[in-house]
Each structure stands twice: as C-alpha cells, then as structure tokens.
Amino acid sequence: MISVYYFGAISLVLIGLYAVLVKKNLLKILIGLDIMESGVNLLIVSIGYINGKSAPILSEGIGPSQAVDPIPQALVLTAIVIGVATTALALSAAIIVYEKYGTLNIEEIRRLRG
Amino acid sequence: MSFIPADYVIPLLLFVPAVSGVLAWAINVKGIRELLGLIGGITPLAVIALAYNTVLNGPINYTLDARVFTLTFHLSTLTWYFAAVAALVASAMVFGMVSTSGSGYDWMFTLMSVTGVLGVFVANDFIAFFLFWELMTFASFMMVLKRNRHASLKYFVLSIIGAYSMILAIAMIYAKTGALDFAGVRQGMYLLTATHRISNAYVDTIYVLFLVAFGVKAGVWPLHVWAPDAYSETDQSYTTFFSGALSKAGVYGFLLLYLLIGVSLYQAIGTFHGHIGFAYIMAWLGAITVVVASFLAVLQEDIRKLFAYSSIGQVGYIILAFGLGTGLGFAGGLFHVLSHAVFKGLFWLVTAAIILRTGKTEFKDLGGLAEKMPYTFAMALIAVLSLAGIPPMAGFASKWLIYEAAISAHMPLVAGAIFLGSALAFAYVVRFLYAVWFGQRPSDLEDVQEAPLPLLVGMTILAIPNIVFGIAPGLVANYINKIFETDIVGGNYYKLTTPSGTYNALTVTLLLIVGLAIAGLVYLYGARARKIPVTDTYQSGNPVTNEFNLTIRKNFYLPLKEALGSWLKVSFDRFYERLANLFEDFGDWLREGFYNGNVQSYAWYLAIILLVLALWGVL
C-alpha cells in the first residue's frame, strides 16, 4: 500500500507536468512549474519521515535516534530557494515577452518569432 | 653488383619524395621549390633502377619500427615492377609540374602521393599497406580540393567507403588468422581453408569488401563516378600520376586478392562454366567497365573528361585481364599496367600543355594546333597510336596479349567487350587528333606557342618507353616471365609468342616504315593536295542541314548519342546523387520534425523518456 504522502506528492508533480505539457498560456505553464516544484519538495520531505519521530532539533530528551532524517529537510530548504529564484526569473521573462509580443499564448509567440 | 646498399633502397624510395615535398612547401621560393620537387620526383626512379640487379637476385626486405606497429616492406620482382611504373610516371610528372604549377601546396601533396603509391606497392603487411593507402588518398584528395570542392567531396566519400570496407576486411582476416603480414595471412587463410575452419559466407564477405575497396581506387564500374570529375578538376600534370600510377594501386590490390586469399576464394565461390568463380566476376566487372567508360568517353566534348573516361576504360582492361585467371592474362594485365601508365601519362601531359598554352578545354574551341606546337603534336600522336593499339607501340603489345589471353581462356563475350572497347577507343582518339591538331585554327589561337621545355622533357620521358617497349615488347615480357618464374610469353626481344599466336614487332615496324615511305612518295609525287573547308565532313553525300551540322569539333558523335539515348538515362552518377539527396532530405525531415523550436514538445520528449525509463525499471 503506497503511502498517502507519496501519492499526494507524485500527483502534484503529475498535475504540474500536465499543465506544462498542455496549457498554452505562459502564466499557466509557470503555475504548473510551481506546482511541480511543490510536489517534488513534498516528496523529498516525505522520504525523510519516520513514523513517530520528532523534529531533528537536538534538545532535552531528543537525541539523534529520536529525530526524523534531517538531510531531506536541508535539501528542500535549498530547493525552495532555487525554486523561488527561477520562478521570479521566469515571471520577469514573461513580463518582457508580453511587452514585446502583446500576448502570452506560446503558439502565438512562436509564430511571431518565425 | 649494386650501387646502393640494399638496406637503403626502400627508405630512400619512401622518404625522399615526402621530405622534399614538405621542404618545397616550407621554403616555397620559386626555383628552390621546383628543384626540390624534381629531386623528390626523380630519386625514386634512380633508386628503383639501381635496385634492379639486387631485386633479381632476391627480394629486399625492410622493417620500420614505429613503436606501436612494426611496418614491413618488401621489394620483390612483382612489387619492383609496379614501383618502377609509378616511379617512371612520377619523374615525368614532376617535369610537367615545373611548368604548370607554381605553388608549394601542390608540390607537397603531389610528392606525398608519390610516397603513398610507392608505399602501397612495397608494403608487406596490411598495416603499412593501409597507412600508405590512406596517405595516397589524402594527398590526392587535397590536390582536387584546391580546385573543385564538389569533385573532391565525391572522391572523398567514395574513398572513405572503400577505406572502411578494406579495414573491415582486414579485421575479418585478422580475427580468423591472427596475422597481418602478407606471408602470415596467406599461410593462415590457406590452413583455415584446408581444414574447413572458415565458412564460405565469411570468405564471400571479405571478397566483396575488398572488391569495393580496390574497385573504388581503380575506378571499376559502378564505383567509377568520382574519376571523371577528380581527374579533370586538378592540375593536369598531377593527373599524369593520378590516373597513370595512383589508379594502379587498386589494380595491384586485385592482384593481392590472388596472392593472399586466392585459395580461400576458390574454395568459397567455386567454378562457373569451367572458370574460377571469383576471377570470373572480376573479368566481367572489367568488361563492363571497358564498355561503359569507352562509350561515355566517345560522347565527351571536353578533352579532360574524354581522357578521364578513357583512363577508367583502360584500367578496366587490366582488371579484365587479371580476371581471366591464366598466366597469359596476368602477363597481359601487367604489361598493360606499364603501357597504360606511359600512354595515359603522356596524354595528360599533352592536355596540360594544351590547357597551359590555350586556356581552352573543349573541342569546339580548339583546332589546327599541330603547326603551332609541333613537338607536343608528335608526342600526342605517339600517345594516340599507343592507346588505340596500333603497332609498333607499347599499347598494341599489351592489348594483343590481353586478346590472346581472353581467346585462349575461352571467354568469347569478354573478348568481344575488349574488341568493342578498342573500336571505341579508336573513335575517341581520332577525334582528339583531328579536333585539336588539324583543321581550321580559331582566330584567337594564332599566337599559341610551343609548350615550355620542362613539360616537353616530361613528355619525352613517357614517349620513349611507348616506342621502346612497342618495338621490343620482349623486354617487358622477359621481366614478367621472371616475376612468375616460368616462361609465360615466349619469343625474343622483338617477338612475342603465345600458345595461340606470334607477334613480331620488328617486322611490323619495318613494314610500317616501308608503307609510310610509299605513302609519302605517293603524297609528294602523285596526289594534288586540295584545301578542304572545315565543315566538309562526313555526311555520305547528303547536304548538311542546320540541326545536323556535326563538325569534328562539336557534337561529332551525336548520332551515337541519340542511338544510346535510353541507355544514357541510366547513370550511376545521378543514382548516387539521388541517394545522397535522399539522405539529406531524411536528415532535414528528422531535424525539422523533432527540433521544432517548441518548448512544450521538448517537455513532451522529456516526459516520454522518463516514462519509458520508469517502465523499463531504470528509475
């Protein structure tokens, strides 16, 4: 039986992928990318989860053996920052594309290019 | 008695041309460049002449340790013959190059190809053979590349196909025998065949691969398409060597088939109507080459193209002769190697002189040059007589031997192909003779001068063997007997005797001289000379209509062309072009279909690949 966390995370990735593959509006594609990113982050975090353990902060009563895996959390922190940065860059690119072509439909943009 | 120690013969032969060529390129000062070129071109001939007695007493071996490989070389009676032909043509070529070429680039690659060809002939293992083979291809490719990119590309692609075929065949032989040296390959293949440890299909594959490899270089139909372009689109003095000696590397390869894997091929392909099967295929390839190339040569309007096709056809004779598989066939083929090299080399030097002095290449722009260039004309006449096979020239003796061989091998259809080819050869050289040298001279050729001295020296070098070996064909026949160590062709210096006939060159020469003397007397005292207008050519008494106004200079063989119309539509050149276009279109379709500039489709490709990998169990 697949864990609900895994199922949810992979579903998010697939929904995002669907948007990237099928939607024609540039902003919707960017939203799809964001959804994929959230899904991936969730998946990484859920890989590190161990049932019944607490947060990996060493304090009284909580040693290394009582904490969940801290490495995915560090990875996800990095990934979130990268994701925000790429989204910001993509959004600024979308603004420029709109200013230049007056449309956000990727097929229109492609036709105008050629 | 030998004049140079046997150890130095092969290094001198191989390194002197290449080194002097590179020096000529590096120094590139007029005068010094030409001097270095002459040294590089003449040294091989001197070395090979001095090695003659040594070779007769026993082969000269030489080993070069190149760290990774050990290259072995071997100057036996057979390889001496081929190397001597190449060296003779090379020495004539360098004289021509002095007149026609003024660049260090030309000298470097010309002399590099001399080294390549000599290396191919004296190599005694497949590594040395292949290395020098590629050196020769590369150098000749660079010579064509400088003048015409399209022609050089066609030559290059076909050469590459040939080279890959050869290296595959060598690898297949090596995989079975573990040997790369010729003696080891011969022994290994013989043992494998004798003990039935090699399948027929395996040997057949090796045979086909070698046929492609050597066929490309020799210009065998249907792999000849590169030759007309490459021969005409390069320095015409260089073509002397290109068509006279470089094409013989392919011919030598066909001979190697017999020497190295002949027994296995015999075992694998068997016999066909009493002929050795694999040789029978070679004979027919040669016969088709002769007929196709000769027909195409007749129809050309450009001197260079005419001789290019003629060269292909004449090499076809040699392949055909080797394909007969009898001692007489080999003797005729080997003799024709020499005579084709000298008469075709002479033709190309004459062409170089014509182009140098007039700048014209087409028959319609030429005419009446015999008075302006008398010495060149005399040389052209010798070449014409020799190619057309008129005694007493070397071309007659060799063709006569091939006829005798084809008849005594009981191959009437192949013999017919030779007869047809010879008739056609006569047709095209006669046209060359009349259209260029006789008739009315176009007004812009009034101030044409005789060819420069070096070019004349080069022509003379090649004209002498045409006459000497024509009047004394026994000189060559005796040497060929020494190669095979039996008396294949009997007779003395002036007389050739085969089981089915005798040819006495001296008698023929004397009769010819007497006949010419009588004709001369008749001309001087008997006939009244009449000036004929240039349009007054053959029409069987019919009035000449405008659309059928065929002078010898333009569309002379148009009726033949019309008769051959449906056959001329079948062209391997066009077939290959179409094949190349097909590949290009397929590539375009792939590129445009997949690399379409749409980000979403790239995302699709990624998603699909990830899905495939996931299903496959990689992810």
Present the secondary structure layout.
The complex is a heterodimer of chains A (114) and B (619).
Chain A: H1 4-22, H2 26-47, H3 71-101, H4 106-113
Chain B: H1 6-27, H2 32-50, H3 52-57, E1 60-66, E2 69-75, H4 77-100, H5 104-122, H6 126-145, H7 149-177, H8 182-194, H9 200-218, H10 226-232, H11 236-269, E3 271-272, E4 275-276, H12 277-298, H13 303-324, H14 327-358, H15 374-388, H16 394-408, H17 412-437, H18 453-471, H19 474-484, E5 495-498, E6 501-504, H20 505-526, H21 558-563, H22 565-568, H23 572-594, H24 599-616
Antiparallel strand pairs in B: 1-2, 3-4, 5-6
Helix pairs in contact in B: 1-2, 1-5, 2-4, 2-5, 4-5, 4-11, 4-14, 4-18, 5-6, 5-11, 6-7, 6-11, 7-8, 7-9, 7-10, 8-11, 9-11, 10-13, 11-13, 11-14, 12-13, 12-17, 13-14, 13-16, 13-17, 14-15, 14-16, 14-18, 14-19, 15-17, 15-18, 16-18
Estimate the global geometry of chain B from the Cα principal axes: globular
Order of helices and strands of chain A: HHHH
- Computed over alpha carbons, the radius of gyration of chain A is 19 Å
Through-space gap between termini of chain A: 50 Å
Low-confidence stretches of chain A: none
**Strand segment tally of chain B:** 6
The greatest interface between two protein chains, and residues involved on each side, is: A-B, 8 and 7 residues
Unreliable stretches of chain B, pLDDT < 50, 5 or more residues? none
Class by SSE composition of chain A: mainly alpha
- Looking at the chains present, what oligomeric state does this protein adopt? heterodimer
Report on the biggest sheet of chain B: 2 strands, antiparallel
Q: Round the mean pLDDT of chain A to the nearest integer and report it.
A: 87
List how many beta strands of chain A DSSP finds. 0
The helix content of chain A, as a percent range, equals: over 70%
Q: What global shape of chain A is seen?
A: elongated
Taking the alpha carbons of the first and last residues of chain B, their distance comes to 78 Å
Largest beta sheet: strand ordering of chain B? 1-2
Mean model confidence by pLDDT of chain B: 84
Number of helices of chain B: 24
